[in-house]
Amino acid sequence: MEKSILLLYCIDQKGIVAKVTTFLYKNNANILSSNQHSDHKSNMFYMRIEFDISNFLIKKQDIKTEFYKNVAKALDINFKIYFEDEKINSAIFVSGYEHCLIDILLKNNTNDLNMNIKAIISNHSTIENVVKKYSKGLDFFYISIDKNNKDLAEKQELEILQKYNVNLIILARYMQILSDNFISLYENKIINIHHSFLPAFMGANPYKKAFDRGVKLIGATSHYATAILDDGPIIEQDVIRISHKDSELDLINRGKDLEKRVLSRAIKLHLEHKILVANKKTIIFD
Amino acid sequence: MEKSILLLYCIDQKGIVAKVTTFLYKNNANILSSNQHSDHKSNMFYMRIEFDISNFLIKKQDIKTEFYKNVAKALDINFKIYFEDEKINSAIFVSGYEHCLIDILLKNNTNDLNMNIKAIISNHSTIENVVKKYSKGLDFFYISIDKNNKDLAEKQELEILQKYNVNLIILARYMQILSDNFISLYENKIINIHHSFLPAFMGANPYKKAFDRGVKLIGATSHYATAILDDGPIIEQDVIRISHKDSELDLINRGKDLEKRVLSRAIKLHLEHKILVANKKTIIFD
Amino acid sequence: MEKSILLLYCIDQKGIVAKVTTFLYKNNANILSSNQHSDHKSNMFYMRIEFDISNFLIKKQDIKTEFYKNVAKALDINFKIYFEDEKINSAIFVSGYEHCLIDILLKNNTNDLNMNIKAIISNHSTIENVVKKYSKGLDFFYISIDKNNKDLAEKQELEILQKYNVNLIILARYMQILSDNFISLYENKIINIHHSFLPAFMGANPYKKAFDRGVKLIGATSHYATAILDDGPIIEQDVIRISHKDSELDLINRGKDLEKRVLSRAIKLHLEHKILVANKKTIIFD
Amino acid sequence: MEKSILLLYCIDQKGIVAKVTTFLYKNNANILSSNQHSDHKSNMFYMRIEFDISNFLIKKQDIKTEFYKNVAKALDINFKIYFEDEKINSAIFVSGYEHCLIDILLKNNTNDLNMNIKAIISNHSTIENVVKKYSKGLDFFYISIDKNNKDLAEKQELEILQKYNVNLIILARYMQILSDNFISLYENKIINIHHSFLPAFMGANPYKKAFDRGVKLIGATSHYATAILDDGPIIEQDVIRISHKDSELDLINRGKDLEKRVLSRAIKLHLEHKILVANKKTIIFD
After folding, report:
1. What stretch of H or E contains C131?
2. Interface mutation target, options C20, C22, C24, C75, chain D, most CBs of D under 10 Å
């Protein structure tokens, strides 16, 4: 089997599914799964199809062109085609907290997260040892950041990302704010984990804020980064129950497993091309 | 809009989706949503399509025949077509515990469960007042049951079900065992709620068994009734956390809300034709 | 058995538990359960003790005085003593949405919520029929509210509350804002249900805000009302998972069961005297 | 602060709390937290007290004797006293699946699980590299097991456990059955993780059984091992939602995080002396 994934959206209209699936069928693909969503408010249609191209009559490199010519053009469809055997190149940004990084490295080691980690970038030099321990051989870059060298630091980061042809940036508890320019270069390609149930407790110190407010559940939110802090399209959220017995430090510690879980689920959804972004929200084809 | 639902299954093969959706498209239906599932072990394909037939070129009463002739026959597809405006006729069986019955009656009053309740049947005469209070006007039947009159009682029940053309039987904490014959007449049309996380604690007194075993979560399971007790295809399950502080009576009381929730979700899935049964398991197109 | 509940707090110091429990023991009470919490930041101590007074050497009406004289005075303890057989008088305020009201009435009918509902007050006249249907005999008051008669309306409400000696006000989806004066008269005695996971989506239309933000979980929060809207001490919160398939109306409908569950749990905790409020947060002795 | 923990149980009777806490108070301890449970069916009383002994008038080595003489003897109390600074010596048994082992090693590295891991014992030689990678310096023992050498293998294991004075055995997905004799030597000191929601799917291949039964939630259960397989007192359980889309392999993979979470919570409760076993069930003072 040779799996391919088609993600598309267009104005809702009759015949989309018939035309798309007939194209695949006539060219001898086998549809493995299919999901669709119609948004009635905006009159938009969204779809994800997994299909087996091992006997496909069109060559891999021509699928895009043929699909455009035969189907997408007439219906004004926006689409992307992915091949399962083409792994995504990723970079992980991390600051002092290392639990999310370690979790990703372990899951990458066992192929629970199936990507090419090309670079691990941190403003904390201590992370180098973590990388060495859990994934010897991965490239680590220490880029110190202070208020005077932010531009330079981002320039260095961008060079690394471009050199390695990185297509996915994971902010695994990265506590530095990225510039609008930086973010605009990687639209819907930067996954952040925020340690609260957004939109509650945006910005710094969410566990302190949660503790002070006396909430009975704490949350974690994984989202695509946008120019506005903690405001990007939400991919995944979850919560755990706490009580008055938990100190602020307890929240920080108990939240670690939650953050790991939410971030790794979001990364997995992205790697499997199960996410479409529309109107600042995500459609998750799971 | 005039919504219709097509549920189908067949041996997995290329072209199913293309042929089904092309049939709908050519006849001017608009596909509202579509879900599919391929079971690789058994090589079977399952699908649910919601489509708008308000401009359909085929008359409502002919859709079945036309779909068979043009699509289903060649692909050897098993299918059913439902129309949203045709409400299902249901009967509710209940014994002494009335919480699930009340919940269904309330949800039916507000159309959260959209069906025609044709009869409420109980082996407890006290239920009559419950019905009068929460849904005045519904037909109630008291059928007393003891070990000597079981056959007669079932005969009476079947007469009622046939008279009212009942297509869905809800066992809302009904504590009598139905005969194999009775069950075989309503295959995948009898929804039971069992007050445990099946297959743990099958049979009588599951809360006592759960208490004695010292579990930390209690569950409820809604399933289609089959000839083997508590063994039918599971539609929905859920659990709540308990502790050593909970007595057996606490479990009974705390389980009530859980049972209501699980049963009403299962009924809703059935009413919306979102369930396919295969190999003693359910496929839930939600 | 004749259950009594002691709720207390004071500056943390050695010997509190010993002195309190020795007082109970010497006077022939049997301690049924006991919970305590020390807040290290504020150096405060909180405690709840349930004890059986059926053989207590002190008369019921003297317990308060004797406990003060013998224990509380020296340790500067703030305390309250409740007797299980003294039901709390409550009033329910409700606007157009009736699901929480119905749930409370049903749970009160079956003693799952053990209180004396003295009055149901609504600014919607249609609620009268709901009350008649589910709890015939309860006193209903229709008090219409517009921007010109708010003061007068509150005056009427307060008269009712005082006439019936109401000690607990339940805002069961009551959409009017109460004045600071009103709230100050019932400190920690007004339980509100807000249909979001506070502090996210405070104020009006939380389901619309949640829909627009694209959250993956929606929540409900029950809290004591304070002068600042949706800012009072949180008693209970819970969430359910939603997806991009849910419309704003779906959120409203799916949230109903959640709101009922969260509100009724909060009421139950209050009725069982399991809540202490400190520093704008609750300590839940459960 | 120097924390000590007292765990006790006895026949329920008046004055226990008063006498225990007065003993602590008179000797200048500060009670940090206290939990109790009365089981009305068996008329037994259970208690856990955390107290600060930094200014205690009794020497550490005499507390046991003094408490017995002054309190426990007269009330016929069974008790144990623990000191927070005395770490528990543990051994981890593991077979081919390494995810639980790795999770424990990582949590031990960061003191999220606060114990002395004295030995890691496996019937799979490949585990040695895992130990070296994640916790260099820990002692690893490869003890191969086949049907002919079971007795000898257990003898070797017991020698290791005795040599290292091990007081807690963690079966981190250990797939060999221990003999009754072995288990009897470590009553309530062997924590197992079973990959199902017990008592559903006891014994081998629970994920296969869960898949075949078509459950909608899968679970994990951590319990003390007893002579009867998967029948010991349950410490912790949890579940995650699955669907018809999940294959048996998906269940195995998705269950990994669940097993880790449930096992590490159970270990933590044990290490913090929060568990009392009574009537084959656990009382969790959390």
Report:
1. helix C127-134
2. C22
Residue type, A285: F
Give the mean pLDDT of chain A. 96
Rounded to a whole number of angstroms, the distance from the CA of D254 to the nearest CA of chain A is 10
pLDDT band at A105 (very low <50, low <70, confident <90, very high): very high
What is the pLDDT averaged over residues C76-100? Answer: 96
Do you know the residue count of chain B? 286
Q: What is the 3-state secondary structure (H, E, C) of D119-177?
A: EEEECCCCHHHHHHHHCCCCCEEECCCCCCCHHHHHHHHHHHHHHCCCCEEEECCCCCC
Nearest CA in chain D to C21: D18
CB-side exposure of D35: number of CA atoms within 13 Å?
A: 17
Distance in angstroms (rounded) separating the CA atoms of residues A17 and A26: 14
Give residue B111's pLDDT.
Answer: 87
The residue in chain A having the minimum alpha-carbon distance to the alpha carbon of residue D246 is A286
Token pair listed for B29 = 């239906």
Cα-based angle A105, A111, A114 (whole degrees, multiple of 5): 90
What phi and psi values does residue A229 have, to the nearest 5 degrees? -60, 130
Structure tokens at D96: 């081919």
Active site residue A230: yes
Mean pLDDT (whole number) for A236-243:
97
Contacts of A123 (CB under 8 A, 6+ apart): A95, A142, A143, A144, A145, A153, A176
Looking only at the bridges linking them, the beta strands covering C190-194 and B234-241 are unpaired
Q: Do A25 and B19 touch (CB under 8 A)?
A: yes
Reported confidence tier of residue D251, pLDDT bands at 50, 70, 90:
very high
Q: Quick check: helix, strand or coil at residue B124?
A: coil
Give the whole-angstrom CA distance, residue B275 versus residue B273.
6
pTM (predicted TM-score): 0.95
Q: How confident is the model at residue B69 (pLDDT cuts 50, 70, 90)?
A: very high
- Count of CB atoms situated within 10 Å of the CB of B218: 26
Per-residue pLDDT, A180 = 95
Q: What is the ipTM of this complex?
A: 0.95
Does the structure show a pLDDT above 90 at B286? no
